[in-house]
């Protein structure tokens, strides 16, 4: 192993102290988020069950009344018990402290390694650490995944610590099988560490042949390879044995991959999260730039470390696949970069007689300053009122159906809760075992019918059929699924019993007592996102007074420093204006007002519905020009263009062009033939064969002019 006897050259200690404190402050602010994961609740219930039953194998059908698979190899029992015990003893505060403790541990390991390698006095060290944290912050959500991040950091820190320490630390290599054993009983992501172990084995062999000065000593390498071999049986030390590994591979890489990638954000490509405040790809690019610069400085000395190169490339490829695998790159980059920074000879990253002593300070400070500005821009509420922010972190009623669960628990007798996927975990935590849920945020117990569920909840298709199949005693509908909420509002079989801050409880019409209770907790909502969802629901209900109340709540509760506040208030004004115009029968005015919305997604849907109604009225009067105009407006107003609105445009444009002279037709570039081709290319989306036959007849010049519009019966 190569030793570096060059004396360290450093900057004034206050510079690195300031930069280090900035990194710590940024980390503290970024971690000051409330519990956001729906998963943590059912994980804690599993932990409670493990303790109560003394079994590490879960009956996955015990928490739901719907058809569910009872047996599935899923081993997170250790994390589940830890989370449960922390919550039981210290509540939400304890879970928040756990997150800070995990990231403090990561910071201390990075700092320890920087000191060991003699690079803690280099300003670039703090940029490396900050970039590493930027990459892994999406994994700061409190659930078993948080433990996986820490175990991955420990694994990589231990590897580089062994290389830095040399032969005298050979015994530490046998910590790897122990770590893997604990990890395999904590979270299923342990299997992705195999990519790092494979890169180190291959890299060490390449180093031995091509870069012997970078290779482990013979003794250390031998014991390391022994430890890697022992990691294989270590994986089997879990309640399910080798079945666990097969289950993970089958679920994530095969049968569950399509469902996860299309329905769950964590399984989406990383590129879609390169938006504020995440900037995932930006951090990856910054890490790549720093890595290449450090690698180039090292390779100038003809020192190529294949372990560093192979592991970084492997996890960069993994990084871009899905959001859930991004945090593995963080420790791989961080410890490799700190290790490469130690090479000072002929390096422009350390001051010498020929380089400006403060050049690197300026560059590092500028980069960190930019990241500070970016953090500060999106963390104004924490900066302006940290006490209020820290208090809000401990409130769950603004993010989970806490108030709605209270109502169900106190007022409803049935034990079959109808609910949506994301809410199930919290409802299990609050209501089980007295009441059971339809579904919770686990895919595997419900895979036999989860496709039907997603069509019901996300696409609002086959709702009556699904409800007849899954006979709940009552339903809690989250406002996030506003189309489903609208169906229940308009249903003759269900009545709105409770209107809460997260969702509404619907009961069978024969059990309704004639009065809808509106929760006072709505007045405490601080988030524009959740207030906009409640506003959507108020719009669906046609409750103008509630919309006005929401405006006052938003004016009072939303932080004045948030740039979207005045835009949100303007949107509420437009919603109120549209609702009043609709009450007065001023449909065109109402549609125009509703269309001026961005936060309130249902405003656009309401506007499209009114335009369809106006188009149908004009169509009945053979006023094809206005029918065409309203059909175009209905198509354009919504973000997700409706193929039925496209069909209406085709039909009304055809009739307009056959009724009027070309000079009378507006020059708006809407021509039926172009959109007819699009419809035929996407014919599976057009559910009505009647509509499809009309479009085909138009294209074949056999259309007799007897088509009908798709009409909006209600809005």
Our count of domains comes out at 4
Mean pLDDT: 88
Which residues form runs of ≥5 with pLDDT under 50?
Answer: 1-8
| C-alpha-based Rg, rounded | 30 Å
What is the overall shape? globular
Major sheet strand order: 2-1-3-5-4-6
Query: What structural class do the secondary elements suggest?
Result: mainly alpha
Number of DSSP strand runs: 6
Mind summarizing the main beta sheet? 6 strands, mixed
Count of runs of 4 or more consecutive helical residues: 30
Distance separating the two termini? 74 Å
What percent strand? Answer: under 5%
Helix content: 55-70%
Key features of this structure:
single chain; 715 residues; mainly alpha; 4 domains; six-stranded mixed sheet; 30 helices; globular
Q: Could you write a compact summary of the structure shown?
A:
The protein contains 30 helices and six strands.
Detailed description of the structure:
This protein is mainly alpha-helical and 715 residues long. The chain has four domains: 27-386, no CATH class; 402-524; 535-599; 613-715, no CATH class. 59% of the residues lie in helices and 3% in strands. It has 30 helices and six strands. The chain has helices at 13-30, 39-53, 77-116, 123-136, 144-165, 175-184, 194-210, 218-235, 242-255, 257-263, 280-299, 306-319, 329-341, 359-378, 380-384, 386-392, 402-411, 424-431, 450-457, 463-469, 482-490, 528-541, 544-557, 565-583, 587-595, 601-620, 624-637, 643-659, 672-681, 689-699, and strands spanning 416-418, 436-437, 474-478, 494-499, 503-508, 517-518. It has a six-stranded mixed sheet with strand order 2-1-3-5-4-6, with helices on both faces. Strand 1 (416-418), helix 18 (424-431) and strand 2 (436-437) form a beta-alpha-beta unit. Helix 3 (77-116) runs parallel beside helix 5 and helix 12 (306-319) runs antiparallel to helix 13. The chain is globular, with a radius of gyration of 30 Å. The model is unreliable at 1-8 (pLDDT under 50).
């Amino acid at each position: 192993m190569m030793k570096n006897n060059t004396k360290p050259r450093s900057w004034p200690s206050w510079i690195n102290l300031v930069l280090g404190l900035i990194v710590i402050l940024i980390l503290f602010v970024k971690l000051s988020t409330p519990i956001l994961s729906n998963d943590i609740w059912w994980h804690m219930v599993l932990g409670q069950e493990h303790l109560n039953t003394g079994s590490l194998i879960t009956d996955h059908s015990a928490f739901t009344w719907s058809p569910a698979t009872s047996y599935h190899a899923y081993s997170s029992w250790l994390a589940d018990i830890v989370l449960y015990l922390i919550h039981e003893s210290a509540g939400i505060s304890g879970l928040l402290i756990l997150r800070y403790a995990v990231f403090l541990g990561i910071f201390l390991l990075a700092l320890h390694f920087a000191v060991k390698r003699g690079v803690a006095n280099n300003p670039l060290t703090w940029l490396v650490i900050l970039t590493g944290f930027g990459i892994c912050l999406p994994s700061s959500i409190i659930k078993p995944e948080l433990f996986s991040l820490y175990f991955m950091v420990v694994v990589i820190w231990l590897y580089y610590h062994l290389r830095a320490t040399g032969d005298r630390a050979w015994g530490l290599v046998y910590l790897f099988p122990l770590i893997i054993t604990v990890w395999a009983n904590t979270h299923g992501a342990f299997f992705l560490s195999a990519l790092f172990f494979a890169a180190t084995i291959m890299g060490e062999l390449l180093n031995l042949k091509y870069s012997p000065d970078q290779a482990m000593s013979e003794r250390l390498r031998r014991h390391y390879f022994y430890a890697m071999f022992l990691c294989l049986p270590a994986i089997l030390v879990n309640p399910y044995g080798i079945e666990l590994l097969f289950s993970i591979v089958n679920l994530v890489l095969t049968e569950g991959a399509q469902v996860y990638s299309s329905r769950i954000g964590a399984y989406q490509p990383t590129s879609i999260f390169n938006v504020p405040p995440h900037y995932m790809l930006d951090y990856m690019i910054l890490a790549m730039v720093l890595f290449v610069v450090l690698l180039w400085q090292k390779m100038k000395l003809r020192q190529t470390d294949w372990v560093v190169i192979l592991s970084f490339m492997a996890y960069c490829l993994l990084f871009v696949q899905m959001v859930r695998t991004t945090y593995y790159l963080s420790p791989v980059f961080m410890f490799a970069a700190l290790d490469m920074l130690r090479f000072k000879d002929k390096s422009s990253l350390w001051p010498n007689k020929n380089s400006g002593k403060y050049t690197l300070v300026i560059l590092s400070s500028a980069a960190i300053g930019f990241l500070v500005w970016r953090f500060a821009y999106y963390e104004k509420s924490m900066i302006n009122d940290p006490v209020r922010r820290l208090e809000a972190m401990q409130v769950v009623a603004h993010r989970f159906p806490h108030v709605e669960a209270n109502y169900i628990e106190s007022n409803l007798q049935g034990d079959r809760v109808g609910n949506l996927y994301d809410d199930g975990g919290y409802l299990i935590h609050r209501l089980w075992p007295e009441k059971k849920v339809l579904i919770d945020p686990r895919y595997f117990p419900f895979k036999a019918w989860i496709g039907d569920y997603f069509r019901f909840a996300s696409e609002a298709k086959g709702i009556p059929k699904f409800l007849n199949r899954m006979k709940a005693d009552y339903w809690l509908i989250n406002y996030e699924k506003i189309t489903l909420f609208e169906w229940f509002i308009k249903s003759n079989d269900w009545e709105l019993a409770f209107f809460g801050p997260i969702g509404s409880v619907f009961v069978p019409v024969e059990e309704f007592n004639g009065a809808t209770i509106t929760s006072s907790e709505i007045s405490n909502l601080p988030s524009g996102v959740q207030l906009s969802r409640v506003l959507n629901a108020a719009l669906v209900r046609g409750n103008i007074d509630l919309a006005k109340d929401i405006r006052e709540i938003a004016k009072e509760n939303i932080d004045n420093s948030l740039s979207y506040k005045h835009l949100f208030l303007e949107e509420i004004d437009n919603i109120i204006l549209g609702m009043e115009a609709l009450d007065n029968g001023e449909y065109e005015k109402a549609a125009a007002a509703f269309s001026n919305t961005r936060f309130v997604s249902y405003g656009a849907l309401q506007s499209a519905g009114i335009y369809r109604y106006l188009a149908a009225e004009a169509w009945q009067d053979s006023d094809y020009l206005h029918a065409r105009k309203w059909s175009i407006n209905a198509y354009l107003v919504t973000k997700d263009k409706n193929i039925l609105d496209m069909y209406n445009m085709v039909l009304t444009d055809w009739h307009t062009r056959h009724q009027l002279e070309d000079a009378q037709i507006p020059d708006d570039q809407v021509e039926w033939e172009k959109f007819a081709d699009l419809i035929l290319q996407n014919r599976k989306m057009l559910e009505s064969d009647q509509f499809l036959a009309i479009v085909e007849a138009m294209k074949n010049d056999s259309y007799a002019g007897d088509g009908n519009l798709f009409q909006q019966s209600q809005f």
